[in-house]
Amino acid sequence: MSKHVLAQNQYGKAENRIVRIARRGGEDGAWHEIRDLNVSVALRGEYRDVHLTGDNGNCLPTDTTKNTVYAFAKEHGVTSPEAFAILLAKHFVTSQPVIREAQIRVEEFAWERIPVPTRKEQHSFVRQGQEVRTAQVTYSETTGLQVLSGLKELTVMNSTNSEFHGFIKDEYTTLQEAYDRILATKVTARWANSATAAADPEHDWDGSYRKARRHMLEAFAETYSYSLQQTLHAMACRVLDHVPTVNEVRLNLPNKHHFLVDLEPFGLKNDNEVYFAADRMYGLIEGTVHRDGVQPVIATSDWITA
Amino acid sequence: MSKHVLAQNQYGKAENRIVRIARRGGEDGAWHEIRDLNVSVALRGEYRDVHLTGDNGNCLPTDTTKNTVYAFAKEHGVTSPEAFAILLAKHFVTSQPVIREAQIRVEEFAWERIPVPTRKEQHSFVRQGQEVRTAQVTYSETTGLQVLSGLKELTVMNSTNSEFHGFIKDEYTTLQEAYDRILATKVTARWANSATAAADPEHDWDGSYRKARRHMLEAFAETYSYSLQQTLHAMACRVLDHVPTVNEVRLNLPNKHHFLVDLEPFGLKNDNEVYFAADRMYGLIEGTVHRDGVQPVIATSDWITA
Amino acid sequence: MSKHVLAQNQYGKAENRIVRIARRGGEDGAWHEIRDLNVSVALRGEYRDVHLTGDNGNCLPTDTTKNTVYAFAKEHGVTSPEAFAILLAKHFVTSQPVIREAQIRVEEFAWERIPVPTRKEQHSFVRQGQEVRTAQVTYSETTGLQVLSGLKELTVMNSTNSEFHGFIKDEYTTLQEAYDRILATKVTARWANSATAAADPEHDWDGSYRKARRHMLEAFAETYSYSLQQTLHAMACRVLDHVPTVNEVRLNLPNKHHFLVDLEPFGLKNDNEVYFAADRMYGLIEGTVHRDGVQPVIATSDWITA
Amino acid sequence: MSKHVLAQNQYGKAENRIVRIARRGGEDGAWHEIRDLNVSVALRGEYRDVHLTGDNGNCLPTDTTKNTVYAFAKEHGVTSPEAFAILLAKHFVTSQPVIREAQIRVEEFAWERIPVPTRKEQHSFVRQGQEVRTAQVTYSETTGLQVLSGLKELTVMNSTNSEFHGFIKDEYTTLQEAYDRILATKVTARWANSATAAADPEHDWDGSYRKARRHMLEAFAETYSYSLQQTLHAMACRVLDHVPTVNEVRLNLPNKHHFLVDLEPFGLKNDNEVYFAADRMYGLIEGTVHRDGVQPVIATSDWITA
């Protein structure tokens, strides 16, 4: 088998589900904060032997990477997905010579408090469902630290102020031009943070997340849209305009089609009131926008190198 | 085949996804309200021929039931899942003699507005993810109207104020007694509304939904729990106490286990701070509570009659 | 809260995932058989105290019910989902006076062998994906044993020999009559076994499963269909005709619509060749057929009592 | 917004579900063949205007790309996922100057015949569930054609012949060495086909798929494993050894943990017989193996460029 070459490889424990409770004082110590994470670890390095002969002498078990996640949550707390992932990525690379690069991916599920008027202690929560926050941190011996942030499953809709016309008509085109349509999408967004932010131990990751999220939502709502591409571009630019530590934004926007139902056969006029919300097929619009002079780093496809 | 008997049967179009936009005035007519529903229709009646010989003379096509859903949304609007389902159920039974009973099930997905400070028009929305509202309306020629309401996928957590001990120990018991644990569950709730409420064309279904939801959440948060059963009972009773038009509540509460991670091997003390959130297996606690003197009607199992 | 009545309730550990390996000899003991199950336990009985006061004195922990599943797999093996569930259900009811009834639900995932021509030992498997086998066993102190078997997620298609016409046309009907259509469905089937079969410790559950499955498939393929209801009836009758220990069959058949794509705009004739496979909405046809003289027991709806 | 740069972008219709029926003669023309596909289109090119101003003059609607998929299925048939995707990719790039590159992704769902002894016509099918076949074809004006093939959701298990020991022990390591464990994984495989195969209109894509699949399964079954990495490497090499038109293989192998259940508390010895099949967390092993002298092209991560 020596004629075959082992190329990129990585391994680790994926989807470590962790809930971290912190007590923030209060008169009886019962003011709780929670962070609810799904943490995945991938290690890259010198793993030729384990692949070719099953010699595990260079292999830190995936079980150990899991233990490290839980132990670090206790030792260091979870101040943000990004900060927690940076700690983990650096630990793996610096603790074992064989590990040259570590990538930590985090999903965070948000909770809000259940208001309980009758007491001061606060330790009851209801899970928010609007979106999942994401982070991906890569730390490499040679190229240093890279921090991506993002979100997914944020579903938004404009019930008007969207048109689509003036497009190419070829022999397979039957689409009618639209002058007032619903525009709905489920946002997946990733953004690359500057090296300065990544290196700053005081960087406010929660704050920059909230800002990026808010400005994307506002740009979606405020843009009178002639195409979903235009809306995508506006959303990405708005984040770059308002969050100075973000250098690059990539958006993946499925066009969640809402088709106006034909009610003519029943003697009814459908004046943009009744829509069928379709599952599949759907348009899929993807794009990257970055600051001038910056090299884009976010992967552009989930299958193939460009 | 005449020796076999056709028993209960039903048919209809399931999962009709419908978005209904209403314009509520504003200076430019651009204050939009949306209702986002998934509507399923089941018809019951005299369908022996279609089963035995494929004679469709008594069969209203499922496609027609779908058309009816969309046409009714235009003609009557959607003031609430329950009110919309009542209209549909009555229509099917009264419009075709062969249809003796109709059951309409609705899921409703909630949206909230994206705040847009720069304009007065409001037609931008972000989907809430906390829970799905449900309704089930059955209208029968002989037994009349029955309206169930409910919700599902409402995930809640108390990070303390939960214990579990004093239980039976048999030869297969290894569980340690717990004096401070996380209690988390994903609530599925159904409640039966009184005949009076069902018959009242002015009944405020959105209002009673909000009240039931709020009191379940508060009961979950305020109950110092010695078992999930006790919490279930408190939640159901609270709804009965506060929503006079509800006669019966059934809850399905998976115990979403959060296991305290053993950090002793790493020289760390885990003082109820770091938990592993498990997927499966899970405890599953189900129960019905109803007003005295009322006959329970909500099905108790999804597979078998009692 | 004494004015409210606790009605039907049950609890137990759900979705215990278990793989049981058995070595069936061979020259080196390496002929392995596997059973891969998902087992859920529900206990019913005298649980008033645990609900009203949190007194767990009558409560066998759900964790113990999980341990029992695993211990029984070792002690008794898994000869079939039904036989294993019968053992468990009887154990719970007979071992604790407070438990009056136990219901065990099982899903079984099938595996087939990976052919390895180079060796005699057989311990390599690939998971089959066609369907999930199901069983539900209820054992009650008062009413004894009830055994349901079934399957789900068995997707089938006839690419011709299906028509649909002659149906009711009302004011909301736009459907065209069809004289040659695809008929596709994802079968969920449950069947009730006779008390004799349930009581017979030698009953061949795997054999009756294979027979029921085969005859449903053949009936689906051989029936020239004028409605999915007719096909449903034929499938149920065929099982009753060929499996004498089955008394009742209930089928849940979503009509997985395949719409003929209109290719006329492109100058192409679509002679039943190119279809769009839709996700939602879908027709949903459900029905029970039983032997004459038998009382049907399979639940007819997942939400509400009839 | 001129200070921001639009970088990689693409768009098209995703998840076009298509069933293509072909009649292969037989005495009455009723021998049917089916191909059941999920086809996604992504177009890349000169789309600056549509993003910056919403001018759609360069934009072929995603709806048109959908129509093209269905029309091509009629005009050209579907001889294999790869061949169909090549036709589509070339069409888009050659038909519109603005489109510089097209990527077509296909999932194929397999069906097998329902045996019907009583007739010669064959048009009844049951869907196989073992795996989904995948293909991805990229055609670029400048770099030409690239064809990836693959599969996903192929779940396999060895119930013995797997060990794991000799690994690094650091301060967070608690894992015990294992000398006989279950090895189970759900295979996602992608392989890159040679330019020669891609350019050959007669290439037997179905044949090379079957060969790659068979040899991966055999390598999994026959490899006595000291690590999942070793098994991964053996599987990839086996494909390269037996399928000469494949240049590169990438595997994504989650380690589906089966934990031996501790039955000691119940006085039972668990001699590798009873396992708990866990959902999450899981080890995740990924790697690429390619022929010497070949440049790897399959993306190594779904989030970030290396």
Automatic annotation (TrEMBL), chains A, B, C, D:
Keywords: Oxidoreductase, Purine metabolism. The keyword Oxidoreductase applies. Its EC number is 1.7.3.3. Belongs to the uricase family. Pfam families: Uricase. It comes from the Bacteria. One of its GO terms (molecular function) is urate oxidase activity. Catalyzes the oxidation of uric acid to 5-hydroxyisourate, which is further processed to form (S)-allantoin. It catalyses: urate + O2 + H2O = 5-hydroxyisourate + H2O2. This is Uricase. It comes from Streptomyces omiyaensis. Pathway: Purine metabolism; urate degradation; (S)-allantoin from urate: step 1/3.
